[in-house]
Each structure stands twice: as structure tokens, then as C-alpha cells.
Amino acid sequence: MKNNTLQDIKLIASDMDHTLLTEESKLPPDFSNYVERLDQKGIRFAIASGRPMYTLKAMFPNLQDKLIFMSDNGGAISYQNKMIYKNLMKVEDYQEMIHFVEEHTEGAAVLCAMERAYVLKKYQCYEDFFRTFLSELAFVDDMRSLDVEANKFTIFFPEGDSITQYEQVFKPRYGENFSVTIGGEVWIDIMNLGVNKGMAMKQIGKAFQIDTSQMMAFGDTYNDIEMLQAVDYSYVMENAQQEMRQYANYVAPSNEEYGVLQVIDQVLQ
Length: 269
Prior knowledge:
By secondary structure, the protein is an alpha/beta fold. It is built from nine helices and 14 strands. The protein has helices at residues 16-20, 31-40, 53-59, 91-104, 127-133, 162-174, 197-208, 225-230, 259-268; strands at residues 11-14, 44-48, 67-71, 76-79, 82-86, 108-113, 117-120, 137-140, 150-156, 178-182, 187-192, 215-219, 233-237, 250-252. The strands form two sheets. It has an eight-stranded mixed beta sheet with strand order 5-4-3-2-1-12-13-14, with helices on both faces. α8 (225-230) links the parallel β12 (215-219) and β13 (233-237). The longest helix is centred in the middle third of the chain and has 14 residues, at 91-104. It starts with 10 loop residues before the first strand and ends with a helix.
């Protein structure tokens, strides 16, 4: 780490689930006020999530001019309704993945396009759960004919065995040519090679002329690893799995204790 202090922080990024959000998927109270206070001090706040852009914007309708949105694990970055960066998958690549998932796995293929997500109609029984993460969602009869702008391909595992699926199936098959990550117990995300939250932090750094030594980041799980490794002030949440602690320089109080805001209090002071 460089010899910076909390006074040098210019950018704070936080994961959403199990990090900024409570276990009931609620934001900490007074979060908007914290963003406003950071903004007044010239400190930008980035939402760094595996969720798509349209879902993130719908979650923060009153902070769209203040927040940087890093969606799809870094596959797209937006600020004040301007797309700073996007990394689109080739149609033939995600079509191959759709075929593989449908024919050889028990997972549900989810294509995360820029405008909405696409899922087969037979998975409509999970609609309420899906819409927590995918606010714009279309159920279709056939995934194999889709030809849309998409920056992420996701597999949903109703049995909650994403780690096993990642280790035994998806990392061996796709890990060499794509970024493959675990987004929780039921999700595996696949993006173009090199796309991750750490790369996105560097893209934001270029756009706003902020060095990674002036960045702070909070995360809890595998798709946060590169982001935590990219910055000096990296915090893993107290509620994260023990093995995640090796990737961060500090531990923040748990999401249920609003740990992100507790650390931000130190920055503001």
C-alpha cells in the first residue's frame, strides 16, 4: 500500500448483496445523505454489482446524478446517464453457452442484454426471485434465436450449487477464454475475458483521473476479489466467508451492522 490516508480517498465502491444491503435486501437508513455528504467533499460513490444497469438505476431513482453505476460485474459503467464503458459479448459466444446450459446442465440460462434479461418461459415460476435482480425481464419460448446486445451470460441454479458447478463444469469449460465468476449460491456469471470489478475500477480511475491508491472498496464474495485486489483501501465484510479475508487489507463490520457506512463515517471525519 502507498502512504495514503483516509483523507486522500476520492472514490468509494461497494458491492450490493451481503455488503451494502442487509440480509433483507434493504439499503442502510440515511444512505442518500451519506452519498450527498461524500459528494460535497468531492468523493464519488460507485455501486459495484453483478446486477444489470437498469436494475441498479431503478434502485436509486433519486441518486442518478451522484452515483457511478458499475453493473454486470464491470461489463458496463454509467455516470449521469452517460455510458462510460461497455464490453459486449459476441452473439455466437452466448449462443453456444445457451446451447450448452440447456442441453448439458440443470441450470437456467439467463441472457443479460443491455435493455432487459431473457429467460425461458419454463422458468417463470422463479419470476418473483428473478425480478429482485432483473427488473427488466422477458420470458421467451426460445433462447437460441436471440441476437441482441448483451454483456453478460448468467446461469441460475435452483439447487444452490453454483460453487460446485463453477469448479466442476463452468470454470474448466469457459475459464480460459472468458471471465467466469460466482455471484452467490445460485448464480454463475460469464463475461468477456478481462471483465471484472477490478478492471472496472481502473476504467473509472481513467475516466475521473483517480489513482487506485485513492480508492476504497467493499465486498463479500468471489465476484468482488479483483475489485478488492485493485485498491489500497479494500474491505471484506465481517459476514463474508473466512477465505475471502485474504483478498482485502481490512475487515468492515457486517452488512447487518451497516458496516459500509461505519467505515464511511471514518472517511467523513
